[in-house]
Sequence to fold (335 residues):
Amino acid sequence: MRAENSATTRTSIAVAGTPSAPGAPSVSGTPSVPGTPGGPSGNVRDAARPDPRTGTLMAALGVVAFSLTFPATAWGLEGFGPWSLVAVRSVLAAVVAGGCLLALRVPVPGRRHWAGLAVVAAGVVLGFPMLTTLALETSTTAHAAVVVGLLPLTTALFSALRVGTRPSRTFWVAASAGAAVVIAFTVQQSGGALSSADAYLFGALLICAAGYTEGGRLARVMPGWQVIGWALVLCLPLTVPVAAVALAYEPVELTAHSVTGLLWVAVGSQFLGLVVWYRGMAAIGIPKASQLQLAQPLLTLVWSVLLLGEHLTPAAPLTAAAVLVCIAVTQRARG
Fold:
């Protein structure tokens, strides 16, 4: 198994390379959410600032939603094949997002934005879910959570290349340290060599970071939830036929776990989680929201024990905590 993962009266907040979560795009700009004052597009630029306590709660709910993505994917794999799970997940999320776009009469983005939306779609809607789902067929969610904990740092690297941000030397030292810790953990857990699951996870880091970075650039000109919404809709011509073929060829067993997992990754992680996350950022700002996000890998470790019954090695929480410290340093050292 990806943000995702910012509004005052006339102020926009820019996010340069700070992702929201696995399965959720990092954005900048002024996001809007369905049902919020501000016109048919749902833009909240002219709405009153939400209460900070409510904003903190919403941002925290977004982090919790994203932290459940890997355990929900593991549940979904109990009854669906990997291709079926990812394709159906994307279709369901696109139906919800498309419904919101239609209900709010959001205008279609200009032609100049579609190339960027295609990058977001390839990285966040298709690539990251597919690669992490393939990894979770043979990897534990705890292991995957630690490896993907590098996503904020990877996104920052892409941001430096794509957007031209220039982090400080302290940032690069902390980012390199975090990468070294995760690589050492991965090699140690894999018995001295990288497994195919590790290859999928590192590939997911790269492709999702590219999608997050492009999403951040696009969200300077459109609300963040619309970026992911249009990216999901853009994938429908591909995901609908893939879902039909995959469901025909991969065995399907509808159990409580598999259906719950599918619904969560489709609606909870890939869309609604983003809505509350953006709303929280609008109330408390990016710096405070990003501090809440640092808890995401550790929360996933907790869910892997409580929901999946996984047994953590001492290295997993220690590595996650070390990555958390490195990310905290980068957050303070950026710029």
